[in-house]
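TASK: fixed-backbone design
INPUT:
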């Protein structure tokens, strides 16, 4: 399809920054933030409501935001990503497709991702609850950052069967699982998550992410080490990584 015919999208933000979470922490990415989410996790720190305008950095990494009326034409996004990649050759590792929950826009992403992937590799950040929307996008994804949403932190029921279906699909590319944990996360939740992941593949990395409240890690180091030891009995590909972008004060 000619790029000028690719459908428009509502976006919240487009910016260039450092990835602050997960296995690609520290890499610089171009972030495309999509609106809407199918969950309402109580620790969520992201405003994912649809907006009249998309906020776009005036230049990559400047932190200065201009407004672009929604919905945004694909050509504008494509040209912007190409421009930033040319301005800063080699600086950007990949494009982060984030939200909200970007897979709610799966039909649109089936048009956008093949073209964007010609510029930079694609990294998807997702809550891991929409397996049917993930499946057709797998050929265009280089990394999948998938949450398993634990009831103790979200306040929502953990959809274990759906997470399993999702991870079976995500495992067709380079994926890892993020577990947001707090002092009140019980061992049973961690054990169930570790067993689910290892049943699919012992090579899938797990990231324990301590919940951040009011700019601080809201869990003791001692408890984090206990959690690490418990999961490591099942899966040794395990790291403890906080939300580093919160401490750096970057977008």
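OUTPUT:
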């Amino acid at each position: 399809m000619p790029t000028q015919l690719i459908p428009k999208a509502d976006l919240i933000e487009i910016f260039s920054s450092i990835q602050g979470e997960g296995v690609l922490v520290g890499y610089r990415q171009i972030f495309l933030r999509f609106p809407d989410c199918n969950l309402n996790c109580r620790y969520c720190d992201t405003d994912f409501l649809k907006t009249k305008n998309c906020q776009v950095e005036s230049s990559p990494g400047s932190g200065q935001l201009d407004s672009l009326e929604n919905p945004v034409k694909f050509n504008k996004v494509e040209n912007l990503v190409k421009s930033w990649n040319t301005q800063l050759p080699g600086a950007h590792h990949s494009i982060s497709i984030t939200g909200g929950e970007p897979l709610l826009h799966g039909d649109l992403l089936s048009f956008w991702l093949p073209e964007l992937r010609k510029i930079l590799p694609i990294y998807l950040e997702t809550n891991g609850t929409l397996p049917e929307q993930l499946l057709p996008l797998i050929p265009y994804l280089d990394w999948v950052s998938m949450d398993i949403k634990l009831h103790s932190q979200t306040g929502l029921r953990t959809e274990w069967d759906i997470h399993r279906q999702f991870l079976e699909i995500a495992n067709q590319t380079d994926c890892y699982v993020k577990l947001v944990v707090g002092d009140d996360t019980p061992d049973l939740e961690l054990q169930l998550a570790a067993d689910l992941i290892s049943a699919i593949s012992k090579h899938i990395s797990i990231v324990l992410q301590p919940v951040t409240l009011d700019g601080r890690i809201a869990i003791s180091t001692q408890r984090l080490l206990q959690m690490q030891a418990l999961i490591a009995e099942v899966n040794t590909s395990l790291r403890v990584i906080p939300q580093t972008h919160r401490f750096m004060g970057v977008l």
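COMMENT: Residues 39 and 71 are 23 Å apart (CA to CA).
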